[in-house]
Amino acid sequence: MIGWRARLGFLVPPGNPTVETEMIAMAPGGISLHFHRMVAHGTPGSLVGQTERNRSMVENIDSGVELLAMVKPDIIVVAHTATSYHLGRRGEAELLDRLEKATGRRVVTAFGSVVHALGRLDIRKLALGTPYSAEVTSRGKAHLEAHGFEVVKFENLKGVENIYDTTAEHAYALARSVDTEDAEAVFLSGTGMPTVSVLDALEQDLDKPVLSSASAMMWHALRLAGVGQPIAGYGRLLTIR
After folding, report:
1. Domain spanning 114-213 has what CATH number?
2. Where do runs of H (alpha helix) occur along 127-181?
3. Which part of the chain is CATH 3.40.50.12500?
4. Which of 118, 125, 160, 170 is the S-S candidate for 150 at Cβ 3.0 to 4.6 Å?
5. Sign of torsion, CA 139 116 219 12?
6. pTM for the whole structure
7. pLDDT digits (tens, 9 = 90+) for 160-195
8. Residues 51-89: tens digit of each pLDDT
């Protein structure tokens, strides 16, 4: 690790064109980033077969994490929020325990990063927007509620058949559509939808915190690795310790 302040590893769904781009954009100097793909069959990002692909990624996750651990990252992030929705709270905890014991590294999930971020922002009531199917979106709502959050409004993105066809403009419109006066913050789930370039603008327009799976992953991984410097341009979360 000579010359690096921290080394972060991300286990990424197959075909996801967004995670590397957004993590590289947000990472401050001196952070070494490493990526490895998860295993799933079918059309990457398609809403058709999403549940089956989620299951496949979970079933094959151990070997991917073990390979990523070979570069000795300080933190490994499972960069797929819907993995947690598929597993449920107990299954997610059991998965992390198994992976940490197998690799000797600290392993966290995208969703776990969101939970810590919402806690740091002192948020209990939020709006949820996803690019997923209605079924997976409902699982996301239930998973948030299982962790003690109140989801006051939730929607999945309409008119898109593949998550990887979404744009930052989709993310902006989705956040605006789910926001409600009762929501203390807006959470955009899904690492396959570009989000980080519009978080600042959304916070200015909505006058409340707006975070995504991507911004939460970077914030949590950096803080766990002992890097606490503020990073401007990607929402208020990344400006706090």
Report:
1. 3.40.50.12500
2. 134-146, 168-178
3. 6-110+215-229, 114-213
4. 125
5. negative
6. 0.95
7. 899 999 999 999 999 999 999 999 999 999 999 999
8. 899 889 989 999 999 999 999 999 999 999 999 999 999
